[in-house]
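Pipeline run #58 for the internal structure catalog. This entry was flagged by the ingest filter as a single-chain record with no existing model, so it goes straight to prediction. Upstream metadata was stripped on purpose; only the residue string is passed forward. Reviewer on rotation: M.T. Logging verbosity set to normal.
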Amino acid sequence: MRVLSNSANWKLCTRIFMLVMLGSIMCWHGVARAAQGVDIASAQWRLSIKKAATVEQDVVRLSDIATPVGPLSQADWQVLGTTELWKSPRNYGGQMDISREKLRNLLGYYLEDIVRLCIIPGHLTIQKGGRIVEGAELQKMLVESLTPQLRSLPGENSLRDFRVPEFVFLRDTQNTLDTSIKGQLKPGRVSLRIQEKGLDGHVFRKFSGTAFLDSWRTVACAATPLNSKEELSPENVTFVRKNAAFLRGTPWDGKRFGMRVMRPVGAGQVIYADVLDNVPVIARGDRVTVVYQKKHIRLTMTGKAMEDGSIGDSILVRNMQSRRDVSGVVQGAGTVVIK
């Protein structure tokens, strides 16, 4: 093994030092040349630092993480954008998160006074390789993939108020995002499932989000104020376009009358199915024919209905002779059968 003399060692170290210094000077020179003659205080251009970026090389360059805003010439940006900053993540697909304070300090170290022209976000995430899907692009993908499912719902349907990641990193440029509804598809806020898949279908990452589903439908409403036990008719019912996302239950379909509301409904309010009951063919206090029927016996007598009843309902009737209350089934208007 060859051993260098002290003199040779000194010369070698000096050369290495000079090379390192030369690289640093060349890197700084790009910044200095672009900023030469720039009055920082009156400059009309800014550098907008991204919240997310991907890099392919081992060192992050300014153009990887920044976008010029304002009258910065293309020539100056080409020089300034090539400024090398810090090392990128070591492994492909690896990420680094940088807080706003740390990011400001790093940019101040590498860019010196130009940092005053930087618009710095709350944080910056950098990934080695892959690509970024921005929130706006993700929302567009969700709308395109979910629209066919919306067609299965009645009414006019649309998605809004997306609550999804601001950006999604894909590990590889060939990977795709698969989107679907998680759970039941119904008006209101729906849960979304977002998966990053490779070409072979392998799922690399899973994300979640929500969106609000508006579903405009024409439903039956009260045309006038309805009192409890008031019968529905074409005169007191109207049909209005409502957003089903804000309905508290299933509206009455409006197809069959002969129904009454069991509690008051204000004018313009939706008539829900659970507030309706059949209009009774026997009202409380009505005189009715009570039929006592067994296998070989059939007796009839006069009674008094003690409650309302529709066909098939069991109600109490009072025998007018014995003054006793018995239970029977409403067979028709004015007739109750006791078996």
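catalog note: Helices lie at 6-35, 62-65, 74-81, 100-111, 135-150.
catalog note: Confidence is low (pLDDT under 50) at residues 10-14, 16-30, 32-36.
status: ready for reviewer M.T.
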